[in-house]
Each structure stands twice: as structure tokens, then as C-alpha cells.
Design brief:
single chain; alpha+beta; 8-stranded antiparallel beta sheet; 15 helices; elongated
């Protein structure tokens, strides 16, 4: 039935890698099922027969689909179906997109769709890697024009040794997690998170990944040679060389004059009449290709910027190649938020706001990996006004999610643990003005906001980007690229890190890949720029995290109780924990391991709730002092509840440091009083003393204590005033409570 079915086998990082073709998705231009260990991912590549009209870009879409059946889960949604892609799926789609996009013809306008469906997951064999390899195979064996193949691996650093495609256990203790994609010769993509790893270690890891990729690139090339289809011809959308040269001759001096400014607004205003003049001059000459005149002007701007950089060492805004735009940093801009910081770099400006919450505010995740919640979230917003445009807000797109994740990854290694700082943290970076490198400005602004909020981060983190222009074997890198250098350059190499080392990298390319020399130079330049930003700008705005939290931030206390006591703290139907929360004006979260997190608007309420929880969870001890509430009055004393379900008797003789005639003269129902546990009988009933607590806590001196009462034989006081008398030799039975 499956005459074209073939299986190609190799090993990757010591685990079997199988590529099955000719059985599934045979109507796609190219498809394969990748089996890596017990992980299985179906990958397909399809292309439309005709180009899409009216667009000036290559329409590529990549979808990484997580199916919860792959890990034996039923979706938690109301409809029990997979909903919109998770952030992890969106980020994986971006990681697949970045190395394959530059390998398509730039003048092709046919829609190309890549779909990777995760069908089975082995935790030790990352499905993302299987999807990236499967995408490369599908494109290589298809008839879609593409200059591959590429391969991708993950590099970890465990006990000082590089590990290719670390297992789940190895990834947990790895000091870096670097995804490296490569062609047969060049490094095509880098995506990294690391625990302050130095440049040499990071460079070594990238090269280790590049070397491992070569085996898989050869493997895929062999598959393509055996079963690959001939690539089809397509209709180019590029303007003719004749048209471009005519526009160039007419407008090059005008374009140079328009671009030569450090102000994006002035540049845009200068370009408007240039576009009008070009259309007035050439619309009649090219009536069928008017839209391509704009393409010619775009190419002309690119030509001018690249020639300035490569031939003259000149940047659009007049800076030196390694100069950074004017910088500024501010904190505490918004009075009612928990923390805020604004970072400005030229005309790029990002304001980040930090919000602190309880552990119950953590984000719940419903994905195919082991992570089920996040206590640190970083969201990035890019409104249209930031670039002077009018466009309705439609929620975050893939770009916004990707930039937020990059900043999140950069700051994660320096955040305090839950034990050190029992808060959930949400950071929101609002891009209020954009002219390049907003993702890196959001890293800087977020560090400022965290420090302003009083989060005890281990070290401040800064972000900076490095650009690239290539021509044959020539290349030039420049630090802190602005918008035009990003649009017309070949690379956006983003690095976040501390004084000690790198915490995150994201590399976007428009060329096939980078040589080791370019990577090394980019790492060195971003390191120097990062130190300057930290020392000269950020730490002068705020030198260290604030010692106190904002008065509007919740006050958080934590403890750990015996797992067997969780039920008692929660109570039947949640009655006990709800009562504590209501009486102490707080929120209590209890985790499965017995960790208890209490948040309240003021510290006193949090301490009161903590005391109650610990009293319930830890059996009362003789000699311990508690704050309780009077629940009942009797002629012989008062009953005091020191915690829900834990009540004791304060005898009238122990109600005060002076003689008490009537219980109601000293306390009333509902009063909060300090009491000391003096006895726990065989049935677990508590005898309490307010008198002893007053003496011990407040240092009161007895004025007319029970010792002044008539004494019976044996020296102990006889109970007076309507209590139980011990005359007659028999002690009356204690009443039921």
C-alpha cells in the first residue's frame, strides 16, 4: 500500500533518530515523521501554486502544534480541546522559522506553510529538536525552492562539560541551554539561556553545537539525494534591474540627504517628498509595475546605508561604529505600582512595571512538558503609537510574545528563589517609543523595575544588540543598532547579561549564517557595551534593590508544615482556611509539599495568620504563648480559641494579675487576648493563663493575685466566688466544652 515508504536511521547524542517518509501526509509538497527516542513529530511543508498578490514580503508561516495526547493528558479547557497555541509552542515556531527563512529566495511570494504536529513525547528527547530536523527534511525532499538543509541541536553545560541534547535530568542542572542551528558551513541561529556564563564558555558551546549539526546536515543531504524532488520554478517579484538603476540614478542623492539624520521623525518626513517625486517621474513609464517603484526605493535606501557602513564606516545617525546612542534610566515613575523603571536609548524608550503577588497568582500551564506553573512572567507590549502609526491593538502577536520571553529568560537566572522571596512576579514592558532594540531596552527597564520594587535580585542585567553588514568575505559589526540598521543589515545579535556573564542570547539573521569570527566579535562587543550600560547608566539610577517593598505591595510570610497537617489547616470544605483569611484580611496558599504562603496588605495581619496556621499545624506546647479569641464566658473562667479547633480554659484565677471577682469584669466574648499554655491533660485539653502571659510578655507585676486568697491545707489557694470548691476532698468533674 505504501510503495514509497522509506525509513532512514542514524543516531543523535547517543539516541536513535529515524526519519519515515512516504506513509503520512503524502499530499504535502514534502513531509516526514521524525522519531527521536519515543518522541514522534509529523512535519509537513506545502506551497501555494501561485504567488500572493499585493505583498512585498515572503509569506512563510510556521506552526508547532502541541497535542496533549502526546503526554497522555486531556486538555483542561471547557471543551476539552487544544485551544490557542501555548507560549512555548509560539516560541518554538519562532525558533524553527529563524534559521529556515533566510534560505528561501527573497523574491518569492508564494505562500509556504510549515506544520509540525507533536504526537508523542519522550522527556529525554526534546520534540522541538525533532520538529526542527523534520522541517529541514520536509523542505529538502520537497519541490519548494530552498537552499538547505539545516540541523539543530541543544547544548547544555553539566559539571563543566558540554552535553548535546541533554536529557530532562541533565537539563535541570545545566548552566546553559543553547539551541544552535547550522547549515553545512555556517551557524544559522542561536537561542540561549544561561546562568551568567562567560563569553568563552558560550562560544565553545555554540561551536560544539555547530559541530554536532554537521552529522545531521550530511544525513539530511543523503535523504534529499535519494528521494528529493526537483525544485520548481517560481515567478520573481523583484523589480527589474533596469527599473532599479533608473530610480537609483534619479533619486540616490535625494535618499542620501533624507537618511542623513539621527531623528527618525525627520528622516520619515524627508522621505515623503522623495517617494512623491519618484512616482511623479516613473508612474507613466512603468504603468503596470507602479507598486514595484516602492520596492526600488526600499532597495535604494538599503544600498545607501550599507555602502556608508562598509565603505565609509559611517552610521546613519553619525555615531561611531561601536558608539551607543544617548542613554537614560529612571525609577519610581508611577506612585501606586509596586515598582517601575524606564530605560531610554536614543528614540527607543521602554517603561517596565513590576507587580508582586502571592504564590496563588502564578500562571498555570497546560502544555506537553513538565512545567505546570510560572511564578515569574514577563509581558511585552508594542503599541502602534510607539512608531508613530495608527493601528488598533489586537493583543500580543508572535513578535511581542517572543520579545517578552527573551527578557524573561535574561532575568530568570538572577531572581531569588521562592524560599528567599515568596512572591509571584509579573513584569510588563510598555514600549512607548521605538527606533530599534526595544527587546534589549525592556531587559534594562525590567532590571530597574525589579530593583525599584525591592526584589533582591542577585545581579543587575542589561541587554544590547550587535548588527552586521556583509559583502562577500567582508563583514562589519556595529553595536546598538537602530531601526534602519536592523531593516537593512544582515543580523540582530541580542545579548543580555550581568557583569559576570551571559544570561540570554537571541540571534536573527537575513543571511545564510555566521562564521566563528563574526560570533566571537559580536560577543566581545556586546560584553563591553553591557558593562558600560550597567555601570554608567543603570546603577547610577538605582545602585541596589530597595530595602523595603512598596506600601501597596502585599506583605508575604511563609512557613512549612507537616503534610499530614494540611487537611487540618484547610478544614472541612475549606472552613478553617476561609475563617483565617476572613479574620486576618489575608490570602493563604498551601502547596502539596506543605509550603504555606500568606499575603496581606500589612505585616501585622500576615503575622497573625502565620501564628494561627502554625498553631494548628504544630501541637500547642506547654509554656508557649498565643494570641487567642474569647469564645465563651463561664462563672469559673473563659474559654479562649488560640486557633480554629484549638480551644482552652483560662480559669478565673488566671485571668489577670490582680484578683478577679467576675469573669465579665475582665474579658468579653470576641476579645483578643494573650494566653500561655500551662497544662495539657491526658485528653489533650488545654489549660491557659492570661495572668502568666501578661507577666511574661508585658512585664506586669501582680498587685493582688490569687495568692492573697484563703489557702487550704497543702498551701494551694482555695477557689472563691462561685467556682468549684475542693472542700470535701473530691474534685468536681470538669464541664464539657
Amino acid at each position: 500500500m505504501f510503495e514509497d515508504f522509506k525509513v532512514f536511521e542514524t543516531t543523535l547524542a547517543g539516541r536513535p533518530l529515524k526519519i519515515e517518509t512516504g506513509k503520512m501526509a503524502q499530499l504535502a509538497n514534502g513531509s516526514c515523521l521524525v522519531r527521536y527516542g519515543d518522541t514522534a513529530v509529523l512535519c509537513s511543508a506545502t506551497m501555494s501554486a501561485k504567488p500572493r498578490d499585493g505583498i512585498d514580503f515572503f509569506p512563510l508561516s510556521v506552526d508547532y502544534e502541541e497535542k496533549l495526547y502526546a503526554v497522555g493528558k486531556i486538555p483542561g479547557s471547557f471543551q476539552r480541546r487544544e485551544g490557542r497555541p501555548s507560549e512555548k509552542a509560539i516560541l518554538t515556531s519562532r525558533v524553527i522559522d529563524r534559521p529556515i527563512r533566510p534560505l528561501f529566495p527573497k523574491d518569492m511570494r508564494n505562500d509556504v506553510s510549515i506544520v509540525c504536529t507533536v504526537m508523542s513525547v519522550d522527556p529525554d528527547c526534546a520534540p522541538e529538536i525533532a520538529a526542527m530536523i523534520g522541517t529541514s527534511v520536509s523542505l529538502s525532499i520537497s519541490n519548494i525552492p530552498w537552499d538547505g538543509p539545516v540541523s539543530s541541536v541543544v547544548v547544555g553545560l553539566v559539571d563543566g562539560e558540554y552535553v548535546i541534547n541533554p536529557t530532562a535530568e541533565q537539563a535541570e542542572k545545566s548552566d546553559m541551554y543553547v539551541t544552535v542551528a547550522s547549515t553545512a558551513e555556517l551557524v544559522a541561529m542561536i537561542e540561549a539561556g544561561a546562568n551568567e556564563v562567560d563569553n568563552d564558555t558560550m562560544f565553545g558551546g555554540i561551536m560544539a553545537g555547530h559541530e554536532a549539526n554537521q552529522q545531521i546536515v550530511k544525513f539530511i543531504s543523503g535523504i534529499a539525494a535519494e528521494i528529493g524532488k526537483p525544485k520548481i520554478e517560481f515567478l520573481s517579484n523583484d523589480p527589474s534591474e533596469e527599473m532599479f538603476e533608473a530610480v537609483k540614478a534619479f533619486a540616490i542623492d535625494k535618499v542620501r540627504g533624507a537618511l542623513d539624520t539621527d531623528d527618525k521623525r525627520i528622516r520619515d518626513e524627508r522621505l515623503k517628498p522623495v517617494y512623491e517625486e519618484v512616482h511623479a517621474r516613473f508612474d507613466d513609464q512603468y504603468p503596470e509595475e507602479i507598486a514595484k517603484l516602492d520596492d526600488c526605493l526600499y532597495k535604494l535606501q538599503k544600498f545607501v546605508v550599507r555602502r556608508w557602513l562598509l565603505d565609509d564606516g559611517k552610521r546613519v545617525d553619525g555615531r561611531g561604529i561601536d558608539d551607543i546612542r544617548p542613554l537614560a534610566a529612571e525609577v519610581g515613575l508611577l506612585p501606586r505600582v509596586h515598582g517601575s523603571g524606564m530605560f531610554t536609548r536614543g528614540q527607543t524608550q521602554v517603561l517596565t512595571i513590576a507587580t508582586l503577588g502571592s504564590s496563588g497568582d502564578a500562571q498555570l500551564l497546560d502544555g506537553i512538558d513538565s512545567e505546570d506553573h510560572k511564578r515569574y512572567m514577563h509581558h511585552y507590549n508594542f503599541p502602534s503609537y510607539s512608531v508613530g502609526e495608527t493601528r488598533p491593538s489586537r493583543g500580543p502577536g508572535r513578535r511581542e510574545i517572543g520579545h517578552g520571553a527573551l527578557a524573561e529568560r535574561a532575568l530568570l537566572p538572577v531572581l531569588p528563589s521562592m524560599e528567599e522571596f515568596p512572591y509571584t512576579m509579573r513584569l510588563v514592558s510598555e514600549v512607548v517609543s521605538s527606533n530599534g532594540s526595544t527587546s534589549q531596552a525592556s531587559i534594562c527597564g525590567s532590571t530597574l523595575a525589579l530593583m525599584d520594587a525591592g526584589v533582591p535580585i542577585k545581579a543587575p542585567v542589561a541587554g544590547i544588540s550587535c548588527g552586521l553588514v556583509t559583502e562577500g568575505d567582508r563583514f562589519m559589526t556595529m553595536v546598538d543598532i537602530q531601526g534602519l540598521e536592523d531593516f537593512f543589515g544582515d543580523m540582530d545579535f541580542k545579548v543580555g547579561g550581568t557583569h559576570k556573564g551571559i544570561t540570554a542570547i537571541q540571534m536573527d539573521l537575513k543571511v545564510h549564517g555566521l562564521t566563528p569570527a563574526i560570533i566571537k566579535e559580536a560577543l566581545e562587543k556586546t560584553y563591553k557595551a553591557r558593562l558600560y550600560i550597567l555601570d554608567e547608566i543603570m546603577l547610577k539610577a538605582i545602585a541596589e534593590p530597595r530595602e523595603e517593598l512598596s506600601p501597596y505591595a502585599p506583605k508575604m510570610l511563609s512557613t512549612k508544615i507537616d503534610v499530614d497537617k494540611i487537611r487540618e489547616v484547610i478544614g472541612k470544605g475549606g472552613s478553617v482556611i476561609q475563617k483565617i483569611q476572613a479574620e486576618c484580611n489575608c490570602k493563604i496558599d498551601i502547596e502539596e509539599d506543605g509550603s504555606v504562603f500568606i499575603s496581606a496588605l500589612n505585616t501585622e495581619d500576615a503575622k497573625r495568620a502565620l501564628s494561627v496556621v502554625e498553631t494548628i499545624a504544630k501541637d500547642p506546647e506547654i509554656g508557649a504563648i498565643y494570641k487567642g479569641k474569647v469564645t465563651r464566658l463561664m462563672t469559673f473562667g473563659a474559654f479562649v480559641e488560640i486557633a480554629p479547633g484549638k480551644e482552652g480554659l483560662v480559669h478565673i484565677s488566671r485571668l489577670d494579675v490582680k484578683r478577679v471577682e467576675r469573669v465579665e469584669d475582665v474579658v468579653s466574648v470576641g476579645d483578643e487576648v494573650m494566653v500561655k499554655v500551662t497544662e495539657i491533660d491526658e485528653q489533650g485539653r488545654l489549660n491557659l493563663s492570661r495572668r502568666d502571659a501578661l507577666i511574661e510578655v508585658e512585664g506586669l507585676t501582680p498587685e493582688n493575685t490569687v495568692s492573697d486568697a484563703p489557702r487550704r491545707e497543702g498551701g494551694r489557694p482555695q477557689r472563691q466566688g462561685g467556682g468549684f470548691s475542693r472542700e470535701g476532698g473530691r474534685t468536681p468533674r470538669r464541664p464539657e466544652r
